Predict the structure.
Amino acid sequence: MTGDILVALLATVVTSATPLLFAALGELIAERAGVLNLGLEGMMLAGAVAGFITMGETGSDTLAICAAALAGAALALLFGVLTLTLVANQVATGLALTIFGTGLSSLAGVNFTGRTVPALPALRLPLLSGIPVLGPLLFRYDALVYLSVVAAAAIAWFLKRTRAGMILRAVGESDISAHSIGHRVIRIRYLAVLFGGAMAGLGGCYLSLASTPLWVEQMTAGRGWIALALVVFAGWRPWRVLAGAYLFGGVTVLQLYSQGSGFVAVPTQVLAMFPYLATILVLTLISSGSARSRLSAPACLGKPFLAPG
Amino acid sequence: MTAIACGMRDGPPPRLQLRGITRRFGAMTANDAVDLTIRPGEIHALLGENGAGKSTLVKIVYGVLQADEGQILWEGAPVTIADPHAARRLGIGMVFQHFSLFEAMTVIENVALGMDKPGPMPALAARVRAMGAAYGLLLDPDREVHTLSAGERQRIEILRCLLQSPRLLVMDEPTSVLTPQEVERLFATLRKLAAEGCSILYISHKLAEVQALCEAATVLRGGRVVASCDPRRETPSGLAAMMIGAQLKPQPARKVAPAGTPRLVLDRLTLAPEAPHGVTLKDVSLTVRAGEAVGIAGIAGNGQNELMLVLSGERVLARADAVMLDGAPVGRLGAAERRRRGLCCVPEERNGHAAIPDMTLIENAVLTAHRRRDLLRSGLIRFAAARRFAAEVIRRFDVRTEGPGALAGTLSGGNLQKFVVGREVLQAPGVLCVSQPTWGVDAGAAAAIHAALIERAAAGAAVLVISQDLDELMALTDRLCVINVGVLSEPRPTAHVTADQLGLLMGGVHGEPGPAARRAFADAD
């Protein structure tokens, strides 16, 4: 009996953590390359609606997931052109991207509101899912959940162990130095931003294809902002992003449960407020210089780069 | 052209030969038909004032910039150097003036980032150690760069080049951040390299160094080659005349000032840094009297910036009497109020700190001088008066610009420095604090700035000069002290200290100077 509750509880934690994890991992890569993209929310919404529409029209979940990643990357490309090629302000452009993504997704999804699609099927890993207790607890989720965890490990390995990862960090640490020893700062930042967009798209489509397989306008409900805060909380480290995403997911679920059980005297609105309060606090911190350094932010985060000469 | 003919006639072809290199930026010609020939194993100096086109030329050699016209020959064969990768493939290594290092990354990562095929990390670390031992460039591969001194940072850059077996090493003003002892060590390394056949292109405007190290020199002025010579056969004044195209006026002799009343007093100041990787000021005390110039020597990054922020009032202190101005406590006052009371500061970074690049010189003049030069009326800018003041600064300090309406960012570094120093000097401050007043400034401009500072002290002001240029401090100041890891030494009369003693005290970022160095300095008078 308790086992069933635990499984159900963990399943909801995973459901609320996975979108955050995708979006935050993508943003982590962009920020380690020195680009602050505040448009996560917009890119997630684009991914959510693109995934949902593709699923509704084709019925193929693989196509739907690809479409979501592409939609996120497309918005990221727009962000890249504006901030990297045209050297627009990253903060302002990111905010605009969120507004744009919100509007665009509402427009694109107007005929799909209220429709449902089949949820992503759970992937029952052979053998592993048969293990009593652990099996249902850990090995009966859909493919995206596993992908998000694998992505965290892969990104950690990429940043620490590969030459490309080292160059990416170097570009975020000192763009001028990287340029002068011959690394293509703008190209590397484009790739990082595009990757960030694709990951945000995946995070968005997890909401519309897996957690609640339907399309609702602005269904991300601020998760993009939470993911942004998560990157800072995690000190720009992939494993901590993973832990943080599940912590945030857990808090959200606890808040829902305490609402249901009614044994907490605190008004539910206050509890529901907490993730957002924490987010505002962290976003304030990253925009102030001295706090950034204490949090070990990439030194060139948010600074525009213009090749000299 | 004769040099080229010589190189062609006998022996192996020159390592590098530039023919008629021209590069324009808009209407300005940075390099105008430059010819340059470097033989194998030669240490070749590239001399010139700021803005003479040295940096542009070496960027073309290293592939960071492309020439508009002209030809590059590498070991006799014409080549195009499209980017730094191509330069490294040919065997050209470059050590930058402002290091191209990554603060939060380790030595070994920094080395690997500058190489095209670094190979696996453990093997690379072993090579770094071996190469370091062979050339006296000792480094711990796993240290993070922000914990290293400037000399150690430079070693990373040199090692990064050496690991790729360069045939030409380009060094852009490598000694500007080194102590005299570190300079000696660097020269030993360079001579060893040259003896092994590596050519070295050595860019500098320090004549004594060029004469000690180099066997050939090419002098640039206004983007053109004005002379090619053997620097060992020239006199320093002869070389200087080639660089600036005129004889330098001798410095006015410095009189020892009578001890006046204390105008600026720092009292046991201890302060944690605000910036990342900053330096904690520890128990800093100093008195600067009317009519004297006091110097603070030290390698950059030993607390100079932190001290400057405290002096200017950009960082306000909890204890008001830690900074006394003409007997009044000002530690809790901001920059504007201190300026009003007669304390003017010129910070090290001219672009973006001392001046706003996107504003005109008139606006930049108003920003600091509005009170002392009465440039405001009921909150409105008196533009005519401001223009007159900016024009006065430009005239008195020979600032080369199209006029007071020019944007500060369009001035060359040296000219902007003359402007920001002049702007403060002409406010007739009672206390004037300047940081690195002639960093990257050419000899003529430096002489003008020095004269202005001496004149200010002679007029009864207290002048504090923070600099890492020992020659400058020796020429300019009455008393000298050294800052090292946030600790300020006891000041000594300048006439009684030697550059060697100062060099030992300056130590490194993380090395406390030894007791022997401290004793030598204390015994100086």
